[in-house]
Design goal:
Helix content is 79%, strand content 0%. The mean pLDDT is 79. The chain starts with a helix and ends in a 10-residue tail after the last helix. Helix 3 packs antiparallel against helix 11 and helix 12 packs antiparallel against helix 13. With 334 residues, it is an all-alpha fold. It is built from 14 helices and no strands.
Length: 334
């Protein structure tokens, strides 16, 4: 047991160390006075609007979660309790990556008597749909800003020479792909009883069964509408805060969509609250859009910093409220 906790502690320290190093590397050459000047020149009315939009997003996510939870598993989960549990989850994620999902499930288990395993299954459904939406948003961003997408691809990879190389070595490429497919099939068959393979298969089965389960909900339409609305809210959060910062106020909606996509990818990284990775990817895309390196990094710091302050404040309030609630007691059977 001690070895398990020690390994978890080491993983947390490593992820935090990576996040801090990336953050330090990005901002080591930026004078603190530049950040203060940008903060003073910003229109904080727009930034306040972005925070209000974010809070709306948290309530929408909470409502979507209640649609997934079957009331027969325990007490009916109200929107307020789901919201407080979600905010506690975000708060814990700031300390331990991915632990927030378990934390918010544990909170509802204590107050509503719903099993952690059941609630975690609903979280897997949520994450599966969020991943599907992220892919859809990336495709949308490509359609809206196709030229910029291609320019970025050309900067990273010489597409023309890569295509010519593939065509000139087509038999080798096809043969290599065939061998790779056969190798994967062999590994799956040969090691099908291995723990890692079983976990992967179980994970994908859960995703598939979770997606099928959505159609059986009492309000599947509300679930899908809220899932799409969440990404509209993410976009509006980014868009309104861009209006409040002079250097990004003139960006188009399509360009903001690209910034949102890069920021969302940065938040997926297994580090505390997307620290470092969010800043790096948002600053990178802003630089490609013609924003100076310093202004791009400061924009990333402002939007991430305001969101962190919101999560810390709302999360602590939610934690205090939920901890005061009595633990759920299973009713006696007659």
């Amino acid at each position: 047991m001690r070895n398990k906790y020690f390994k978890q502690f080491i993983q947390i320290v490593i992820s935090l160390g990576i996040a801090v190093w990336i953050f330090w590397f990005l901002y080591k050459d930026i004078a603190f006075e530049s950040l203060i000047d940008q903060i003073k020149s910003s229109n904080w009315a727009w930034i306040l609007v972005s925070l209000l939009v974010s809070i709306l997003g948290y309530f929408v996510r909470s409502w979507r979660w209640t649609l997934l939870i079957d009331a027969e598993e325990g007490k009916n989960v109200t929107l307020s309790r789901a919201y407080h549990a979600v905010m506690i989850g975000y708060l814990v994620n700031m300390l331990i990556p991915r632990a927030g999902e378990v934390a918010r499930c544990g909170v509802l288990t204590r107050t509503n008597g719903i099993s952690v395993g059941y609630l975690f299954g609903t979280v897997i459904v949520e994450r599966s749909v969020d991943l599907l939406c992220l892919v859809s948003v990336i495709v949308l961003a490509f359609l809206v800003e196709k030229d910029l997408f291609l320019d970025l691809a050309i900067q990273l990879v010489d597409i023309e020479s890569l295509g010519q190389s593939i065509l000139s070595n087509l038999p080798i490429v096809v043969g290599g792909l065939a061998i790779l497919v056969l190798l994967v099939l062999y590994i799956l068959k040969r090691f099908r009883d291995h723990g890692l393979i079983n976990k992967l298969q179980h994970f994908f089965r859960e995703i598939l069964s979770g997606l099928k389960r959505i159609g059986k909900l009492s309000n599947p339409t509300g679930f899908w509408i809220s899932s799409v609305l969440l990404w509209v809210i993410y976009f509006l959060t980014m868009y309104t805060i861009s209006l409040g910062i002079p250097t990004t106020a003139n960006l188009s909606s399509g360009e903001i969509l690209l910034v949102m996509v890069m920021g969302s990818i940065g938040m997926i990284a297994p580090v505390q609250g997307g620290i470092g990775t969010f800043h790096a990817l948002v600053a990178f895309i802003l630089i490609q859009l013609g924003i100076s390196e310093i202004d791009g990094k400061i924009f990333a710091a402002i939007i991430h910093g305001t969101q962190v302050i919101l999560v810390l404040g709302a999360g602590l309030v939610s934690w205090l409220i939920m901890m005061k609630l009595p633990s759920w007691i299973k009713p006696e059977q007659n």
